[in-house]
Amino acid sequence: MNALLATVRRDLLLALRRKSEVLTAVFFFVIVTSLFPLGIGPEPVLLKKIAPGILWVAALLATLLGLPRLFAADHVDGTLEQMALSSSPLGLLVAGKILAHWLLCGLPLVLLAPVLGLQFDLDASALGILTLALLLGTPLLSLIGAIGAALTLGVRGGGVLLALLVLPLYIPALIFGAGAVEAHIAGLGAGGHLSLLAAMLALAVFFAPWATTAALRIALE
Amino acid sequence: MRQSIIQWFRFASPQSFYPLAGRMIPWFWAAAAVFGIAGLWLSFFVAPTDAQQGEGYRIIFVHVPASWMSMFIYLVMAFWAGLGLALNTRVSGMMAQALAPTGALMAALSLWTGALWGKPMWGAWWVWDARLTSELILFFLYLGFMALQAAIDDPRRADKAGAILALVGVINIPIIYFSVKWWNTLHQGSTINMNKAPSMAQTMLWGMLLMALCFWMYSIAVALMRVRAIILERERHTEWVKHAVE
Fold first, then answer.
1. Which pLDDT score is estimated for A153?
2. Which residue from A27, A47, A129, B114 has the fewest beta carbons nearer than 10 Å?
3. Is residue B127 part of a domain?
4. Per-residue model confidence (pLDDT) at position A74
5. 8 A C-beta contact, residue B116 and residue B61
6. Given A151, A164, A196, which is nearest B143 (Cβ)?
7. Which one, of A221, A208, A21, A200, lies nearest residue A98 by Cα?
8. How many C-alpha atoms does B26 have within 13 Å on its Cβ side?
9. For A215, which of B161, B171, B175 is closest by C-beta distance?
10. Number of domains in chain B
11. B151 shares contact with chain A (CB less than 8 Å)
12. Residue B113 forms part of a structural domain
């Protein structure tokens, strides 16, 4: 557990020394969501209807933006090999890196989403559901994305390939995340969607670090 | 028992699998031709015209087998990939790599024939139905698998990385399928209900099964031919390949 916390602290520290990289993904999220009304038109009814989908797709893409950096720098300077050789299990260290990635790339999106939701005329309860859905969903995105990041580590054209591998796997999170808000607006209640999102998160917390570790070991061979 | 296990593992070596595959290919081609001719004859000349859909329904004899094969090949591919990862056998990874293009072809064929069928029946090339959407996602998964394998130069690493992706995909396919299904029922956008299949005439069912067997044999034959090419390419530095090619 100490190893995990140490990895989280290290990754956060490294990211805070180079703030622009983290902020790029956040600004990307803000800009993309602001572009949609400009492209579609300012009718509040339409915007309110498509808001959950837009915010979720933008969150998906913003998370994707930070993924190539998850292991690349450590791979280049050899830290990753030291991690694989260290006495703490690699899976634990990888879990720490994924947690740090979520804190840097996922959590800011969760905190910003209510503000951006206001642009789309969502009411307070819908904003609450949106934030809750993103809070459950963005760790899922980081976990699944980490598998893709490990598989494409040091591969030619890794960034585009990563999107191709990971985006189809993001679809369930998108459906239930955006669906939770839509169901709430439609008066159906968001409980079912949020429960399913939480179930997928539990599944991913268990399996994803393990699959990521296996993929990293292959990349390090 | 122990004897038989050793016999099976003998074919895990590319050198002994290559001639075996070569011997099997003509038989699978022949079986594909027999089933295909019988299936096409049954589906075009024997099967009656559908009361509701007219002659247009006959595309089902290509569409349904292609959809079945696209899903089944992914499972087989993941099985070989998992076996290769667990036992570190070289031919397993090659089999997975050889199956992927055929699976992608089947998925594309299924989407294409589905669009051709959908236009006269529903009046739309594409509806966001659960089955169509999950077939499209399956097609994306095949493309991702092939792109990952193509991007990695070292074939052993490509096999292993592809294997992990295939296994992650296999876990995700049921999740994706059900999420798309529930998403669809929530929206209730289309009025078409595909779950109520009209009761099918016996000859139609036979035609479909024969065509499915034809597609199955074709897939095996093509995958074996492709795996032979992959073996030659990867083992080109060895002595036996030089003799085999001569």
1. 87
2. A27
3. yes
4. 87
5. no
6. A164
7. A208
8. 3
9. B161
10. 1
11. yes
12. yes
**DSSP calls for A152-184:** TTT-TTHHHHHHHHHHHHHHHHHHHHHHHHHHH
Find the domain containing A24 and state its range.
2-220
pLDDT at position B16 over 90: no
Q: Are A179 and A46 in contact (CB under 8 A)?
A: no
Judge residue A164's burial from the number of C-beta atoms within 10 Å of its C-beta, 0-12 exposed, 13-18 middle, 19 or more buried. buried
Asked if B25 and B17 count as a contact pair (C-beta separation under 8 A), the reply is: no
Of A147, A155, A168, the CB nearest to B151: A155
What's the helix, strand, coil split of chain B in %, to 5?
A: 85, 0, 15
Model pLDDT, residue A79: 86
Model pLDDT, residue B1: 46
pLDDT exceeds 80 at position B131: no
Q: Is A202 part of the contact surface with chain B (CB cutoff 8 Å)?
A: no
Residue B1: inside a domain, yes or no? no
- For A83-119, letters b (16+ CB in 10 Å) and e give beeeeeebbbbbbbbbbbbbbbbbebbbebbbebbeb
ipTM, interface predicted TM-score of the complex: 0.84
CA distance B180 to chain A (A): 7
pLDDT above 60 (res B196): no
A55 by Cβ neighbours in 10 Å (0-12 / 13-18 / 19+) ranks as buried
DSSP per-residue letters across B35-101: HHHHHHHIIIIISPPBTTTBGGGGGHHHHHHHHHHHHHHHHHHHHHHHHHHHH--HHHHHHHHHHHH
The strand ranges marked E within A90-174 are: none
Structural domain count, chain A: 1
Give residues 157 to 186 of A whose Cβ lies within 8 Å of B.
157-158, 161, 164-165, 167-169, 171-172, 175-176, 179, 182-183
- B2: in domain: no
Full residue range of the structural domain in which residue B126 is found: 18-48+57-190+199-245
What chain B residue is nearest to A170 in terms of C-alpha separation? B176
pLDDT for residue B51: 65
